Amino acid sequence: MRQVSLTEARAERGARSVRRGKRDSRAVLRAETRGGPRKSKVAGSAGKVRRLLVRRPVLALTLAVVVVGGAIGLFAGGHVAHAIERAEGALVQPFTDAGFVVRDIAIGGAERTSSTAAAAALSIPKGESIFTVRPDAARSRLLMLPWVADAEVQRHFPDKVAVRLIEKRPFALWRNGNELAVIERSGAVIVKTEAEAFPHLPVIAGQGAPEAAAPIIDALAGQKAVQARLVALERIGERRWDLLLSGGVTVRLPEDGWDRQLPELEKLIVEKGVLERDIEMIDLRYPDNYVFRLRNGDSRPVPRERRA
Fold first, then answer.
1. Domain-embedded: residue 86
2. Residues 184 and 264 in one domain
3. Domain check: are 155 and 178 in the same one?
4. Residue 256 and residue 53: Cα distance in Å, rounded?
5. Is 129 exposed, middle or buried (0-12, 13-18, 19+ CB in 10 A)?
6. Are residues 119 and 160 in the same domain?
7. What is the domain count for the chain?
């Protein structure tokens, strides 16, 4: 009895193995039908390529150089740019035909910038599609003009471009050797010019004068008699100022405390009438005396008035 049971058990296990084999065969068949082997082949090929590149880094580097070089060649040769331009032109043309073209260019805020110079910097021909106008690029070109401090360029559809300029403010004239230039308050040079073009601006001279001129020009605005007779301000040794007044009179200011000497000079002119005398130079650098040098070469110190 035991032997018969063992035999039956073995037979049963064999039958189950046969059934499992059939099921596995059907599964493999279904996988093959769905492209499983093809995917396996692709994955296997990719794996082989990766393993090849890992084992041969020089080959990998060469392939990378070839790919990058090809891309650079396309861009450098203009092929990509030309393709983009052709596509852009095809998109823009219907709008151009519909009237979206530049017919009017309005420029505001130009006092010292000529309309010819502004138009040349804008470089926007009338009749061009308004969609091809690049406001940022046009603004960058306008900022290269000497008098333009800032600019705003706007497209107003369908056919107008509006430009607003903010120009630099002239502050003084700087005489540097034989050249004369208009400068800003900061001391930055704007353009070379002639004195006749800006008769109302103070004239400064000397090395370092443009950067140091703003405080003393501001202070002179409150001294009417001095300002009315002022011909030029000269920077001496990049440390102090001389005032050149009408009639050939030179006023020497100290390096420190020069601002306190301007009211003193105003008083000497208005109350003492010193410029009506034969004076060539007034030296205000000494705390206790004024020193006057006459045109004949004599120097005369005069005690300052002591104030309570």
1. no
2. yes
3. no
4. 76
5. middle
6. yes
7. 3
Structural domain of residue 9, as residue ranges? 2-61
Q: Return the HEC string of the chain.
A: CHHHHHHHHHHHHHHHHHHHHHHHHHHHHHHHHCCHHHHHHHHHHHHHHHHHHHHCHHHHHHHHHHHHHHHHHHHHCCHHHHHHHHHHHHHHHHHHHCCCECCEEEEECCCCCCHHHHHHHHCCCCCCEHHHCCHHHHHHHHCCCCCEEEEEEEEECCCEEEEEEEECCCCEEEEECCEEEEECCCCCEEEECCHHHCCCCCEEECCCHHHHHHHHHHHHCCCHHHHHHEEEEEEECCCEEEEEECCCEEEECCCCCHHHHHHHHHHHHHCCCHHHCCEEEEECCCCCEEEEEECCCCEEEEECCCCC
In terms of domains, do 190 and 294 share one? Answer: yes
Q: How far is CA 113 from CA 130, 153, 258, in A?
A: 24, 16, 38
Q: Quote the tokens at residue 52.
A: 């090849």
pLDDT at 106: 96
Amino acid making up residue 173: L
CB 245 within 8 Å of CB 229: yes
Same domain, 298 and 181: yes
pLDDT digits (tens, 9 = 90+) for 17-61: 555 555 555 554 455 555 544 545 545 666 665 665 556 665 555
Residues 173-211 pLDDT 10s: 999 999 999 999 999 999 999 989 999 999 999 999 999
Is the N-terminal amide bond of 210 cis, ω within 30° of 0? no
Range in 74-88, 144-158, 284-298 the model is least confident about: 74-88
pTM (global) more than 0.70: no
d(CA 265, CA 180): 28
Residue 2 clears pLDDT 70, i.e. is over it: no
Task: Report residue 47 as tokens.
Answer: 């794996």
CA gap 231, 238 in Å, rounded: 19
